[in-house]
Amino acid sequence: MEAFDTIVIGAGMAGITCARMLADAGRRVVVLEARDRVGGRMSTDRTHGFPVDLGASWIHGVENSPLWELVQALRIPTLEYTVGSFQVGGRPMTHFDGDGRRMDAAASAQWIDDVEAVDRALVDAIAASSPGETYLDVTERALDASGLSPERIDEIREFFRHRVEEQCGAWIGDLDAHGLDEDGIEGDEVIFPHGYDEIPARLAAGLDIRLEAEVTGVSRAAGGVTVSSTHGAFAAASAVITVPLGVLKAESITFEPALPDDVAGPIARLGMGVFNKIFLQFPERFWQDDSYVIRALGEAGERWHSWYDVSAISGIPTLLTFAAGPLGRHLQDLTDDEIVTDVLMALRALFGDAVGQPIAQWVTSWGRDPYSNGSYSHLATGSSHHDHDALAGPVDGELHFAGEATWGDEPATVGAAYYSGHRAAERILGHPVDLTAFAAAITARERAAKS
User: Fold this and answer.
1) Tens-place pLDDT, residues 394-421
2) Alpha-carbon gap, residue 335 to 337, rounded angstroms
3) I need a surface site. Which of 8, 136, 305, 417 has the fewest CB within 10 A?
């Protein structure tokens, strides 16, 4: 049995960050990763000669973001793309009404004003909510008090439902009333023209990473832990579990003894959403050149409602749409071609015969991925932001948890994964790890390797 100071389970952003910090501090670390690659839910397809981010895509707000500071220190190129948080306006958008007719500037402005007015009332409704109430409950309360026409209320109701689906991968009635409390964005959002997985790949250089090593069990006793995997057993003084919440909820890893309720409770209470992507490349552009987003309201957008122009990544006309929540789970039972055909029908209802046949397509299925069992975590009804942080442990001072689901300030983001990996490393080392020095050490190591 191989022995180490720390075993890190999972080579996503949280696991790679933690392992890198521990290794830089002189600790003997091994990373066990079930996939055949690093990055976890940061997954970039480059088979067509350009990157397609099938998993994480955005940094949601660059102001006061240590993740953004890391990206800058590593000189990783980015593109400003501030629509990743399902905004009602704020950037050029092409809106279609419930009958599929393009809205003029005045109608779009009125739509934005109406949603923002109800959103202001929604803040008060959430603050006055009782334990156990859902986001559906509070949005209905705000809509009832709006004084808007029944048709406009229906459109905003759809907007709120889609916002929850895209932000949380969940149905609005399954999200806690406080489920979007942390949904504040500071500064612009950015995407990655060379692929988001460049970050974990560069952090991982030189680490002892065992790929296709699926962990099946973790046992702890006084003085250490033993981890069982398809690559054999490993022993260490401590272990860091960074697998997605969906894997923990599925009990794919057995813990002996069982996890205490301080950790097991949050695993049970928090939700794991499904958020899938559909990229379509076209021979010609049929939408407006200056529009970030195409959005259909009401009945026209009941199923497929938002398409994002990500042509800048490849230089080829490309739209990205999402299937999240119940729709995302349902569509995972269909073939990729069936899903694409459905998307094209919705686009042709808006643009007619101008919509050509795609020349390339990508369709994800994160809910069926056994190494994630979903896309990211959310506050299911009855859970709280405290559950995210409580999930981090530690347990008996030996077992630590990290990943987006363990960071209450901004769960479901790459930033959360990064910060949680940093926290786990500091707890194991017993002293702070300066993030500026951490980034500088990575670039210095890279320079030395090239010389």
Assistant:
1) 999 999 999 999 999 999 999 999 999 9
2) 5
3) 136
CATH of the domain at 354: 3.90.660.10
CA 89 to chain CA mean position, Å: 22
Is the residue at 81 inside a domain?
Answer: no
Residue 339 lies in a domain: yes
Q: Where are the alpha helices (DSSP H) in 55-149?
A: 66-73, 105-127, 135-144
| Residues 159 and 283 both lie in one domain | yes
What range does the domain containing 411 cover? 2-40+197-268+384-450
Place of tokens 């689906």: 165
**Across residues 161-166, what is the average pLDDT?**
94
- Distance of alpha carbon 191 from alpha carbon 80, whole angstroms: 7
For residues 284 and 354, state if they share a domain: yes
Query: Residue 331 pLDDT > 80, yes or no?
Result: yes
- Report yes or no: 366 and 247 within 8 Å, Cβ to Cβ: no
Is residue 412 located within the same domain as residue 347? no
DSSP string for 265-327: HHHHHSEEE-EEEEEEE-SS--S-TT-SEEEE-GGGGSSS-EEEE-HHHHSS-EEEEEEEHHH
The whole-angstrom separation of Cα 145 and Cα 118 is 9
Q: Are residues 212 and 301 in the same domain?
A: no
* Residue 231 is assigned to a structural domain of this protein: yes
Is residue 20 domain-shared with residue 139, that is, in the same domain? no
How is residue 171 annotated by DSSP? Answer: -
pLDDT in tens, 205-255: 999 999 999 999 999 998 899 999 999 999 999 999 999 999 999 999 999
Residue 186 has pLDDT above 80, yes or no: no
Same domain, yes or no, for 218 and 299?
A: no
Enter the DSSP assignment of 9: E
Total-model pTM: 0.96
Element (H, E) at 360: strand 360-363
Are residues 264 and 281 located together in one domain of the fold?
A: no
Within 8 A by CB and 6+ apart from 66, the residues are: 415, 418, 419, 422, 435
